[in-house]
Amino acid sequence: MTTSALGIPRLRAVTRRIEPVDEPLVYASPDDPTVWSRRGDLLVGVGRAAELPAGTPAAQWWRDVAAVAEIDDKVGMPGSGLVAFGTLPFDPANSSASTALAVPRMIIGRRSDTSWVTHVFVEGEPERDEPQAIGFGPHWSATVGPGACTPDGYQGEVRAGLEAIASGEVAKVVLARDLVGTVPAGSDLRRLVRALASAYPDTWTFAVDGAIGASPETLVTVSGGTVTARVLAGTAARGADADADTAASLALATSAKDLDEHRYAVQSVLTSLRAHTSALVAEPEPFMLKLPNVWHLATDVEGTLSGHASSLDLVEVLHPTAAVAGTPTQAALEVIRRVEPFDRGRYAGPVGWIDAAGDGEWAIALRCAQFDVHTDAGADIPLIAHAGAGIVAGSDPETEMLETRVKFRPIIDALA
């Protein structure tokens, strides 16, 4: 790969409109797909033209890559031109997982009625053949079981969190439990992506470097100078019938415990964004977000970007929010490190994409599983999934455990 004198790859991105592709997923890698999708809009990455060197600060590396890139974009829509896909660990100081940021060799995009393809070349690379569609492999199902934290063990975690709250160490802490399993060797992971996108179209369906899921929570979106975020905190399972569903929604909307948890999360986002935005506003009261399996308390935040921060800069400022860590943040991280018996990896970390202008869409990696896509050929593929709940004064250990069971459902159903 040809690079600049500073070791930055020199890339040329060429974007052109194309006729709609019936199933863009057929171009993704079956064993390591790169996908970003919501409500029919999607980006599918193929191959690798460049990737973040280990130990390199991601936001600065991307600025350097974009600064020397040659971009010929005749589409001019969010996600066209030069784009990198990324996923970051929840707790870089306490994780074996690293930040992944990669530029595909080809990106197929679709937004509303417009479809396009972007080819990315390294300097001096000749024109290449068009990639070929790869038919979907056979259906498969995963084997999944308890991980390092059993349901009973999780209730012990919650009690430890409540002790930290009672002592004044934290006001809120988000604690998770895990499931582990495998999928058969050679499984086509695109089937999992397709199942999640079909079942949960209003979420961010993602597949980036082995992290695959359907997240309902936007961490931050930057588009043309406008910054938006959606905060989710406070959850209730959907009711079994219309009356029970209405009762579940009303109970969540009036729950003092859940409203307190939600306020912590909103203030966490506002505090982090204020230094980088102007005219920052949040809805005064949360609204009820209905998903196929749960109700969430939700608040939308919007502001105008001030200065030259990119979406990846804002990701690094925002993460971790109170919605996935707790309040105060650093104290909550210490409780999580002490109480949880596992490394979260990229669960509850940022996942999304960024373009050459710094715009992008980033979600929090929830309702997901992490696959070891670098497993030797012929071996079953290990996976780990997590689900968590926000613990505040008054939380009940058994109720919080049942909440994690509801949150596991999207990924577990899709794996089955």
Write a structural description.
There is one protein chain. The chain is an alpha+beta fold. It has one domain (11-415): 4-Layer Sandwich (Anthranilate synthase). The chain is 25% helix and 35% strand. It has helices spanning 58-68, 151-166, 190-199, 242-253, 256-273, 311-318, 329-339, 397-415, and strands at 11-18, 34-38, 41-46, 50-51, 70-73, 83-87, 100-103, 106-111, 114-122, 143-146, 172-183, 204-208, 211-215, 218-223, 226-237, 277-282, 287-290, 294-305, 326-327, 350-355, 360-364, 368-371, 381-392. Strands 1, 2, 3, 5, 8, 9, 10, 11, 12, 13, 19, 22 and 23 form a 13-stranded mixed β-sheet that branches. Strands 4, 6, 7, 14, 15, 16, 17, 18, 20 and 21 form a 10-stranded antiparallel β-sheet that branches. A hairpin with a 3-residue loop joins strand 17 (287-290) and strand 18. Helix 2 (151-166) packs across helix 8 (397-415). It is globular and about 65 Å long. The protein starts with 10 loop residues before the first strand and ends with a helix.
